[in-house]
Design a protein that fits this description.
This protein is mostly helical and about 190 residues long. The protein has helices at about 20-30, 40, 45-60, 65-80, 85-100, 100-105, 120-130, 140-145, 150-175.
């Protein structure tokens, strides 16, 4: 894993295309600054818009997947891919959605922890199995997943995990750094 002070080998953009102004404005309003990956994705604004629309759909309020489960699998894939930015951003969202840092601090060792529901454990096992190269989805895991999710929700969960793999691998490969969004210290709340 790279060090926290490593310099990205592909430089981020200083100036972003005007076509990304709506995304930039939303990021600045919500996070106080432009999110780091935007400065790399900005080289391909139309592709970035497609990616943003895709993740927006997966993160919609009417998703068939519980928001905490979505954040758990996104955080876990981020950890598996060693994506510093994704771990930071997805840990923040998990802390916000679960109401504490407990699951954020436990997700790396989820198999040994007792605070995850059977549905969350199945989703985390699926995230681990899908993130392996090649994906290793056992018949036992398939049966476990079918006990918690219907086919439509399983398809959406698969898309979410696949998307997070794309995002985490893109960011990790380009050494996109964390942004300090989620304070991972006992007694401190996540920074919003």
């Amino acid at each position: 894993m790279k060090t926290k002070n490593s310099t990205p080998w592909v430089a981020p953009l200083d100036a972003l295309p005007a076509s990304l102004r709506p995304i930039v404005a939303m990021q600045e309003k919500h996070f106080g600054s432009v999110l780091n990956p935007t400065r790399w994705w900005g080289r391909f604004p139309y592709l970035f818009w497609l990616v943003a629309l895709f993740v927006g759909f997966l993160e919609r309020r009417r998703s068939g997947i519980d928001p905490v489960v979505r954040s758990l699998v996104m955080t876990r894939v981020s950890q598996q891919c060693c994506c510093e930015f994704c771990i930071d951003a997805n840990s923040l969202r998990l802390a916000e959605r679960s109401g504490s840092m407990d699951k954020v601090l436990a997700v790396a060792n989820w198999r040994e922890e007792t605070l995850f529901t059977p549905e969350e454990q199945a989703a985390l096992a699926y995230a681990d199995a899908m993130t392996a190269t090649p994906p290793l989805i056992s018949d036992a895991l398939k049966a476990e997943l079918k006990g918690h999710f219907d086919d439509k929700t399983l398809t959406e969960l698969t898309a979410l995990i696949a998307f997070q793999n794309l995002s985490a691998r893109f960011n990790a490969a380009l050494d996109i750094p964390a942004q300090g969004l989620c304070v991972n210290q006992p007694g401190k709340q996540p920074h919003v």
